[in-house]
Amino acid sequence: MKKGDNMNNVSLIGRLTKEVENRVTGTGVAVATMFLAVDGFKKGEVDFIEVTTWNKTAEFCSKYFQKGVRVGVTGRISTGSYEKEGTKVYTTKVTANSVYFADGNTSKTNTSTNAGTEITTGFESIDDGDGDLPF
Known about the structure:
Layout: E1 10-16, E2 21-24, E3 30-39, E4 46-54, H1 55-64, E5 70-84, E6 87-101
Parallel strand pairs: 4-6
Antiparallel strand pairs: 1-3, 1-5, 2-3, 3-4, 5-6
């Protein structure tokens, strides 16, 4: 790493605690917010993490992810705080770069969804004819 480089990467696997919340910005950008229950360090401990996705990834999450589905997320962490009834509340959120189904084949899409296979949103599949690609 060079001086000044930042490293802020996180990978999580957990279950969605409720349905994906969808919205579109004033400029037409899709945004999806999900809440992920992730096992903590101690047995029986669970962390609840808010995850935000944008653009094609948000559209994918809105279409295919449902409450209870086990998903994986990679992205970056942001922390913050706010006051609630005189008490400071700390928050941890993730902005996702990529998402994937963490269980087996749970959806019929044109993108592979086998366990651990990353969803490549924003790409379309191509017909390779007889299966003999030139590369």
